[in-house]
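Quick question about two entries, pasted in order.
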Amino acid sequence: MNKSIKPYLLLLFILLIDISKIYSQDPNFSNFGQNPLYYNPAYPGLVKCMDFKINQRNQWIELPGKFNTSVFSASIKLPPPWGCGLLLSSNNEGEGFLKTFSAGLGASFSFKIDNNKFFSFGLMPKIVYKKIDWSKLEFDDQFDELYGKIYNSSFISPNTDYRWFIDPLNCGFMFKYIFRQEQIRNPLEQSNLTFGFSLNHGTRPTQSLLGLDGYLETKKVIHANGLYWLNQKYGLNPGFIYESQQNFKTVTFGGNIYLGHLYIGNWIRTMNNFDSYILGAGIISTGNNKYMLGISYDFTLSGLRTGTNGTIELFLSAELNDFCLFNNQNKSKNEIRKDREKNEKCPEEPWYLRLKRRIKFV
């Protein structure tokens, strides 16, 4: 890209972010199924024990300015009916020109409708930090046609370059239905269908760096994922997500095909027309603890395809079902009470008697 064009791109960020009253949009992820807490704070209520995920998105990799988003999430099931979630995100725009960091700590309330239906509600307040580096702005009056950048700019930077604000209202619910397939016992998880709705930035907090009316607009999300095993190795994983924030409305739909320890994904993102075709692939571990590593590439189909060269995403997921912090966390209060009554009627044998019985005397 021509050096003389770069100043106008950087200046455009200022215009879009702060000087005018245009509202910003949250980054979206192609691998939304592997970034559930980012979209819905109710997710911790549906995990078995602990769940950790890392997502990295590098958007429009051909542009010299960086549009990178990183997200780390941890979801932990607490004693019924509670769960907790931690969400950390970092977003860089324009070679570090504008940086946004956010941290959220949420709680979820879940209950079991019956043996195969579960419901969860979650709430996650966040604290957000935005910082702009005025020194990276470059203006036309700094450049000479022959010698390049040799002059000082007449631009006077504002007195402030950062802002803290609270984003208190991020909430959602999720419903999960588990299919009983007695003839198919897959080592990953049972066939299921999950549906959810979330509302983010419900209070429309002000994010302007210059004290203007720059609001973080409310975002509404509807999402669904399914998992159906054809046999012990092969399965289908369809899904969709609808995101609406101010004038930005997108729908992403498609599915993954599980092939033993591998999966292949094909997805489409639409706005007014088909915006991107998304191809993904990854590896999966088997066992009670589930590990996944995946990559996806967005082939831009809109008019932005010239010069942007698509988007790359990476994710790493670890579902640790053997590492529960609380032994009774997957049991209801009635089940815990019955276990306690059973132990009172039949107390556990002392350890020294168990040891004596196991020792074989010669």
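Here is the second entry:
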Amino acid sequence: MSLVAQNIFIQRKNFSLSIPEFTLETGEIKAVLGPSGSGKTTLLSVLGGLEKPDRGSVELDGQQLTSRVVRDNISAVFQFPYLIKGTVEQNVSYGLRLHHVKREQCVPLVKEALATVGLKGYERRSVHELSGGEQQRVALARALVLRPRVLLLDEPLSSLDANLKERIAAEFAEILHSQKMSAVYVTHDKKEAMIIADTLEVIVAGQIISKFDVKHFYQAANNDLTREFFNLPAPLKSTISQADSLGDGVVNLRLGDKLHPVTLVPQEMNKLAHTMNGESGVNIFVAPQDVLLFRENEQAPQYAEWLLLEGKVTSVYERGERAQVVVQTSLGDVVAVISVVRCHELHLHTEMPVQAVLSSYHVEIT
């Protein structure tokens, strides 16, 4: 299965959408993330055949999106569940009845869909007795019962409170993956997108500014617009030089007045090969959760693959069970996200000298 949109262009009075290419593959859950007014819902409407672009095309397995192709292959879940008055069963079977499926055939399909979303035995419940999270799961079951090849979700959790949203997002992710569903998930919530999606595309002012695999988020989100959107720390600045005697792919990375051998993956080596002349300037990207902190006089790991930077704490911000710590080093500010327990063990405070330790396996050098 492949849903492909090409050269999509829409011009409105105060807005334009320009998407050269958008592709969804079989079993892929792709989040489209952007602020209000960025064009994400308009893009979803185009993908679902609800809005015709001024230019461009959308195809599902090589077929143009006609109303019949949409009806037979695509389902949607919206910001509000839009449930009809009645029972859970009546709501979940609604689409099946529109497809003229007989009642005796609907019953086992509805039971299966409800079991999938964790609402087994809810058939006779009135939808108005349900919580907000349960109502959204009914809406998801109503979409899944049609066994669509593509599922479109337009901010389905935005009306829920923050704590419930995170839990339901994790449940949605488990359901979509267990069903091997191909889905496009539109949201403005960064955390929600990271929980649910395999791949992510960031849309700002009607244009996709970045696309990447969620697993490699911090390494892939390395353009300025994307980092600004996610409020990510600036890259560290350093230099590298050839280390011919240490083997293929190994370079010397300067950390203060010391050179540290680092093995680059082939993609990094290929990108940097043409600039390698003496000591070349590089950017170092590291995920905050991959940074370890130690007190100035504490024994830090001495393994070859660990990079050690000395610095001082400039800010400590605790939120829930995690703490964000900013450490000023000679290469720039290192942002670490550690447990509050570890933060208290270290007695961290501003101006405190610390050691920031990075695994060379978890940094990207560009």
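Reply: The mean pLDDT is 85. The chain is about 30% helix and 35% strand. Hope that helps.
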